[in-house]
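Checklist before submission:
- one chain only
- standard amino acids only
- sequence pasted in full

Submission:
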Amino acid sequence: MASIAAVRPWYHRLPAIFATGFAIPPVALVLLWTRKGASWWKNLLLTFPLLLLGVAHLFAIWGMRVQMDGAGYPLFYFPAGEKHYAEIDRRAAQDRATVPPPAAAPAPAVEPAKPAAVEPAAAKPELPAPWPGFLGKNRDGIYAETPILTAWPPSGLKQIWKRPVGGGYASMTVAQGLVFTIEQRRKQEFAVAYDFKTGREVWTSSWDADFQESMGGPGPRATPTWDEGRIYFLGAEGEFRCLDAASGKIIWRKNILTDNGATNAMWGMAASPLVYRNTVVVLPGGPDGKSVVAYNKLSGERQWSALDDKAAYAAPMLVTLNGQEQVVVLTAKRAVGLTSDGGKLLWEFPWITEYDVNATNPTIAGPNRLVLTGGYGHGSALIEISKDGAREIWKSQAIKNRFNTQVLHNGVIYGLDEGILAAMDVETGARKWKGGRYGYGQLLLAGEHLLILTESGDVVLVKATPESHQEIARFSALDGKTWNVPAIASGHLLVRNTTEMACYRIAP
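Returned file contents:
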């Protein structure tokens, strides 16, 4: 009597099943488990190599990739492909075809009418740059322009516009009626200006760059900075451009890595440029005193440079501590204060986080105090600056931010402690409360509330109170992993991630 294996049809034999597994893995699994007379444990053993073939098939044929979420767990995803970029191109072409017509010529002069008995109140002038750069005007994540709506409808805030964008983790800057950000589109980085009211693409400036890293994903990271009609863009591979904000025309450009003999950081150039007076400061991390570099903001000529430190990812800040204006910088191993006019070292404080991920901006906590935070179990510290240098006041594990900057309100620090919202007393470092799993998203402070953009793309409103965690409202604003810092300007909330950007009205 012939064996069962001998009488099986050809498609139920193992060579045929594994050959099918190279082409259509799910069909191979069906063929394996529908074989007559096969023992379940043999089928189970054979399932594992077929599953591996299936995973390889997804990577090789369908372009699946893996990157990490904020906690370091793998995320399997299909990166934006040609279809997505084609949609961006289509929208851009549509935008160019629907450019608003130029303003009409003024009407001929007529005899002025008699003045009214009561003159109307003058309209409040709009700010030329309501959100001029990373984390707002003072780089503290605080929106204080107008009150925000705190009673949200069940569907969430009113969407004003939404559009596809290129990849990367930069935030948005709002000035001159435009929204500026930087994106990865195919093999190029794009500096882009959008119309604030409509989301229409106004202009772009692009260059060849394709920064890739397996954990966070590809694309530029640094938020552009606006100043007096100019906008400063920094790409992930060091391309640094000063552009005319209205037109996108190049004023000057250079690569800060090659210009300073620097090697790129593991996760790319991420520190947003700092502009003050005639100076723009960037952090290439070059050797021989070229870690922190100040260029003339008008010409691009070097003004001064300082330190030999490896670069980190937090943005430089212009602050006054202990009565002296200074540039505060987080390098890979320490926090430092440098004189704003020449880069002379004023003080330093060791701050070493695992993988050199100093990616969270300090928070100014008083005339001579600032709070540092770091993830990977590092924690927080309050340091005090004096003429003798920097000293530690307290250390705490209450908040451990990886790349999510905290905010200060009424003596309480609020931050995402390894993905969970927490409140910490700024005087003692004691935790007030912890609650709300929002992942490795971002947060801002607006009035008495925290606005949180979660890692999954939800927008959440939480009461900024030391008493307890009080979530007020939430809605889904974006799809997919979202690490980009939101922006608020003129009563509108701007959010984006690696594939889309949206504007919501948040004013009452």
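Reviewer check: Residues 317-400 form a domain with the Thrombin, subunit H fold (CATH 2.40.10).
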